[in-house]
Amino acid sequence: MIITFVGMILNGKAYVDANGIVASFVNYFGYCDAIAALMWSSALATWVALVLLLVQKIFTFSEFMEAWVIGVKELLEPVLILISAWGLGSIVSDLQASAWVANSIPASFRVEAIPVLASILACTMSYATGSAFGTISILFPLIVPLVGLKATSHKLPLLHQAGGAIFGGAIFGNVVAPIADNTILTTLSAPIGLPEHLKSQTPYVLMVLAVTLIFGDAMVAFHCYSVYVGLLLCTAVIVGVVLLIGQSPLRPDRKSFGLVGIELLRRRFRHTKQEEFTGALLPSQNIDSSLNSPEGSRIF
Question: How many angstroms separate the Cα of 76 from the Cα of each of 54, 80, 130, 170, 236?
């Protein structure tokens, strides 16, 4: 990760210096070739791993190359999906699809609904492709110019909201899509099958999606409150949902949903009342004999 950021800065600095652009970190990242930086960091990571494994005599060179080829095979399909998404994103940009979509939208369409639309499209596309980067590559050339063409005021906040909606929706497919690399790697690294993993993840992800779509994207885009209020409100709603209908960790054998907070208070109250009852009963008796008696054992 460090090499990737350093490579992005160096690549962007070279471009900025060559074209007479004002030197700043924002411009370095804005004009860098991130793909080249990723290639540099991947190549360097491969060489570092080779050296470490050979020096520690964990792998021989032939074993390392066999493992490297297997790794390349595993990554071939996601790379092909990503390359296809980049190509489709370039086609969308070259054909000016955003302008066509903007002209096709009726005048009654509220421009504030673009972040909500972008979030739904990103969730659908990321679930279908299993690629967050692919979804971002396709939707950014479509949504960002659409905001610029349709919005007459508050363009920058609306642009930020639409971009955030695309990023959030793109992550949705990475978590619950059966063909997503994150999902597959999780099932491989943990002793759990793919259907069981998706069954355990999907309710949480859908809950977060619904809360952020309603209380975040929609309300903030329609100027009901600020971004910071929306962030705090979404966090509070999610925590409240978990506390109210989440399954109690104190009773994992229960199939029904319990109130986690109330369950904690109820158990604490029972423990306190039991201590008061025991303390009121034992002073009139011999403590040792009461503990050994059937009555005393029933108390505890």
Answer: 26, 6, 14, 21, 41
Q: How far apart are CA 137 and CA 6, in angstroms?
A: 23
User: For residue 85, what are the contacts with CB-CB under 8 A and spacing of at least 6?
Assistant: 129, 131, 133, 134, 135, 137, 138
DSSP assignment of 70-116 equals: HHHHHHHHHHHHHHHHHHHHHHHHHTTHHHHHHHHS-TT--GGGHHH
**Structure tokens of 39?**
């290639």
Nearest to 212 by CA among 167, 153, 243: 167
Give residue-wise pLDDT tens across range 215-238: 988 888 888 888 889 889 999 998
Q: Is residue 77 within 8 Å of residue 180, measured between CB atoms? A: no
- Residue 136: count other Cβ atoms within 10 Å of its Cβ: 21
Query: Which of 54-68, 122-136, 259-273, 276-290 is predicted most confidently?
Result: 54-68
**Alpha carbons 287 and 278: distance in angstroms, whole number:** 10
- What is the enclosing helix (H) or strand (E) of 33? none
All residues at 6 or more sequence positions from 163 whose CB lies less than 8 Å from its CB, including other chains: 140, 143, 144
Q: What's the pTM value of the predicted model, to 2 decimals? A: 0.60
Q: Which residues contact 260 (CB under 8 A, 6 or more apart)?
A: 242, 243, 246, 248, 249, 250
Q: Give 236-254 as a DSSP string.
A: HHHHHHHHHHSPPTT-TT-
Name the one residue in this structure whose structure tokens are 């370039």: 90
* Distance from C-alpha of 271 to C-alpha of 279, rounded to nearest angstrom: 12
What letter does residue 216 receive in the DSSP assignment?
I
